[in-house]
Amino acid sequence: MPDALPPLIRKLLDPAFSPLVATPAELVETHASWVLLAGEFAWKFKKPVVLPFLDYGTLARRRYCCAEELRLNRRFAPALYLDVVEFDGEPAVKMHRFDEAGRLDHVCRRGELRPEHLSGLAATLARFHAAAAVAPANSRFGTIAAVLDSALENFTELRALTRGIFSAELDRLDAWTRREFARLETDSPEPIFTARRAGGHIRECHGDLHLGNLVLLNGQVTLFDCIEFNDDFRWIDVASEIAFTLVDLLDHGQPGLACWLLNEWLVETGDFDAVEVLRFYMVYRALVRAKVAAIRAGQQDAGVGGNADLYPAVREYLALAQSLAVPLAPTFCITHGVAGAGKSTAARQRLLADPWATTLRLRADVERKRLFGLAPGASSHSARDAGIYTPAANVRTYARLAELAGNLLDAGWSVIVDAAFLKRAERDAFHALATARGRPFSIIACTAPADELRRRVAAWKASWAGSNRWPGTN
Fold first, then answer.
1. 84-102 pLDDT per residue, tens
2. What homologous superfamily does CATH list for 101-325?
3. How far is CA 77 from the centre of its chain?
C-alpha cells in the first residue's frame, strides 16, 4: 500500500477496518481521484488537489463536485450512479461497477465494435442533447471569444509542455485554426459560431466523450464519467461533443465506424449546419488529446533531452490534426435504381469503407419524412403516389437533397445521395450541381434480377403489414 495514501483511503482498503466489504478493495488512482472497487460497487473520492482546470482543494468544493457528478451523470446513466455518501466526513460518489471489458475502447481494440452499436449511440446522443439545458443567453459559453480562446489555449500549453520540439507542426496548425475560425465567423457574411449559439446548439453536454467513457451495458452503449469540475468544458456545442468521439474512433484506426457514427447522428438530428464547424472542432479535439499525451509524458519524465521520439503519442495526434485540417478534395455521387435494387446497401458499404471518414450520405427516405415533419423511423401512412409520395412531394424532396448536397460540398465534405433517381432530369440536375462546383461526379447504378426484386419488395410489404403505408421508393 503506497505510503502517500491518506489515512482514510488506507483504512478503507484494509478489510480489518473497512466498512465497505470484508475482502480487500481494489484501488484505481488517477491524477484527481481515488476509486475503490469492492464487490458490485465503486466509490470515487476526489483528491484535495488544485490544478489549472480543476479545483478540489476544499471539503466544500469536493462535496459540491460529488453532488454535481451524481446529478450530471444520472442524466444518462442512472443505473450506474447511485448516491453521494460520506466516510469520516469525506464525500464519495457511490456507483455500480460494470465489466471493464465492455468499455468501448476495449471493445474497439478487440475488433468487436459494430455499426449497430454506433447507430444506438447516435440515437442516445440525439435524445440526450435534445433534452440537455441550453446555455443561458448572458453566459460566456459558446461565444466566439470562448470558442477561439479554448482552441488557441491548446497551442500555448503544447508549446510549453513539449519544450518547442514540435514548433513547426504547432505553428501550421495554429495558423490553420485562426484562418478557419475567421473563414467561419469573422470573414463570413453569416457567422456560423454565432448562429450555432443563437440556434440553441450550446448545451450542457458530457464534455469528455471518448471511447473510454462509453460502455456496453446489456448491448446498449451508455455514457458515463462526464466532466463535472469545469463548466467551460461541459457547456459546449453539440458538434464539439461528437467531434471527440469521431477523433477517438480515428485514433483507434476505425474511420469507417467514425463515418457511420457521424451519418447516423445526422439522420437522428438533421443538424447539417454542424458539419460546417465539425472539422474545426475535430482538429481542436485532436490537439486536446495531444496535450493530454504531453502531460502524461511529462509525468513520466519522457521529455528529458528534447527528443521528439519521446513523445510518440503527441506526434501521432498532431499528424491526425493535420490530416483533418487538410482533407482530400470532396467527391460527389448518387445512387440509381428501382426499389429493392440495393442502393442503400451500396451506400452503406461506401461509408464503412471510407478511409478518411469524410463522406456524408443524404437519404431521400429520411429527408422526405423530415420535410413533412416526420421522424426518420416513423410511418407516413401514405399509399403509393399519395401523401408524401406524390409528384409534388418528389420535387420538394429532390430540391431539398440538392440544397443539402451543395452546402455539404461547399463545406468540404464528400457526398453520396441515396435516392432512386429514376428520371434522367433528376440525374442531370445533380450532375450539373457537381460541375458547378468543380467536383467529380459518379453514379452507383444498382440492379438485381427481377425475381430478386420481387422477393425484396414482398418482404418489405410484409414488414409493413397493417401499417397502411406503402414502403415506396426513394
1. 999 999 999 999 999 999 9
2. Aminoglycoside phosphotransferase (APH), C-terminal lobe (3.90.1200.10)
3. 18
